[in-house]
Amino acid sequence: MQIGSRPIAFAAVWRWIETGRLCSPTASALLALGLILATASGGGTAEVSARGEGDAGGIRMTVVPAGPVSDQTRVEIRVGLENDSSAPRQYDVQFFLDRPEPTAEIGRQTVTVPACGRALARCWWETRGKPGKHQLVCRAESGGQATERLWPIEVVASDTPGLPFFQGVWLEPGAIAGVCETDRLEETEANVRASSDAICRLEMNMMVLVAAQYNAVFYYPSPEVWEMDGTRGYSHSFPAAFDRVKRQIEIERKYTPVLTAYPWHNYLHDPASGGNKVDPRAVQLFESYSAWKKQQDRARKE
After folding, report:
1. Is the dihedral angle over the CA atoms 248, 203, 287, 300 positive or is it negative?
2. What is the C-alpha to C-alpha distance for residues 260 and 210, in angstroms, rounded to an integer?
3. Rounded mean pLDDT of the chain?
4. According to the per-residue pLDDT averaged within each range, which of 23-27, 30-34, 169-173, 250-254 is highest?
5. Dist CA 54 CA 222 (whole Å)
6. Comparing C-alpha atoms, which of 214, 84, 76 is closest to residue 142?
């Protein structure tokens, strides 16, 4: 999908969602986020077509991670295929690096999409030895007609699988509700949208909507950008100090290809994003990380 001018890889991770279990503020936040995702790019994943942006031909492309990435990892190229006809349809899907030519092919897959159904084609691309700015290209052909999609991606020379900054964020519905809750849904949507824009400004090009815990079972990614008062439990969690977050980044980039911040709302807060319940420590963490990220960007360009 796309928010503003930036492509975003959006992944929805649902462990359990049961009817009646969501409180009203959380449900409002989920609905607002759903509206943003649906309106940002027509409800699809991000794709740039050689014939212009859009979903023509029922073909959508996304890349995970969206980039930038290190030259010590690999990325997954995903192509969603839709068939609105009453008969199955076969696609020959080719994947290329930079240009749709035989010498640049990095993968190929034949996929049959059922009648009035959907299917997925995918390919993995190794980034080793390929620093620089590239375009990943997919070409889907069916019935003598071909459609191409492009995805720009930057590969950064690195001595570790992960880069020294966050590439994505985890959006927890409960946390979104806690910051963005108001009496009117449109205000909630505006706050979530502004926060999404802040994520884009920091080149966090992947969002994961997740229920991080249920029945005392936890699914926490790391690094975490929050701490808690051990004597008082989770209800007294607070934004972590930047030095602590930076130490986590430096340690985990050695082992993790994609560093994601958990969670975003209420812990890493851009003051331009609005919201009713803003912790000043969250603003301080955002500003410290933002300044550090700019230093990383300058060093990358030198």
Report:
1. positive
2. 13
3. 75
4. 250-254
5. 34
6. 84
Global confidence as pTM: 0.72
Strands 9-13 and 237-239: unpaired
Residue with tokens 């409180």: 23
DSSP SS3 for 14:
coil
Q: How many CA atoms lie within 13 A of 101 on its CB side?
A: 5
Q: Is 197 exposed, middle or buried (0-12, 13-18, 19+ CB in 10 A)?
A: middle
Q: Name residue 120's beta-bridge partners.
A: 80
Q: Return the structure tokens found at 219.
A: 């699914």
Question: CA–CA separation, 129 vs 75, rounded Å?
Answer: 14
Q: Hey, which residues does 7 pair with through a beta bridge?
A: 2
Q: At what angle do helices 173-180 and 24-40 cross, to 10 degrees?
A: 100
| Bond preceding residue 257 cis, omega within 30 of 0 | no
- Least confident piece of the model among 24-38, 108-122, 190-204, 264-278: 24-38
Q: How many CA atoms lie within 13 A of 202 on its CB side?
A: 28
Cβ-contact 162, 256 below 8 angstroms: yes
